[in-house]
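Fold this: Dihydrofolate reductase
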Amino acid sequence: MGKVVVYMSMSLDGFIAGPNDSIAQPLGEGGSVLHEWLFDGNIASKHNDFFQLLSRKSRGVFDESFETAGAIVVGRRTYDVVGGWGGNHPIHGVPVFVLTHHIPSPTPNGSTSFTFVTDGIESAIEQANAAADDKNVSVGGAHIVQQCINAGLLDEIHVHLVPVLLGSGIRLFDLSGDDSVRLEKTRVIESPDVTHLTFRIIK
């Protein structure tokens, strides 16, 4: 079985999106700067040439997230804000599990298989693990990441640290509970416009 991981672009002050995110503005006000490293270069991803990276190191990290993903788990907020990716998630052929209280209708037609999970984060991860075989389950959205950490389900954190201070918006790590979370730094890859950090969660 693979690992449960998160890959997320984040500002130096801890935000993964600006305030007032919406379908028209998925990364919120001022949040698009967090994804500039994905589009500001001329080195295409091997798996989706929509993404144009500035360095080969960044392309390697980005392509790794595609190659190791066997299933994806997101929350309903993420699903709604991105419009269900129009039915076609950028990681082609990988099933997406959406944690929600209510199943949306209609759902977009496309190549991606969506499963809507209404019975909690543990069930969503269990179903995603079964679908992923020996590959990783990639989780997305701040609330989903926080739920996974609190439930002891997350194994690795991959942060693409962007040198900007957003000041406000959606934080990746607003955790509830009194217990700290210990991390082991396992990799640092520097690129001109972003620093890629990998941490293992110590359980």
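Residues 44 and 191 are 15 Å apart (CA to CA). The longest helix spans residues 56-67.
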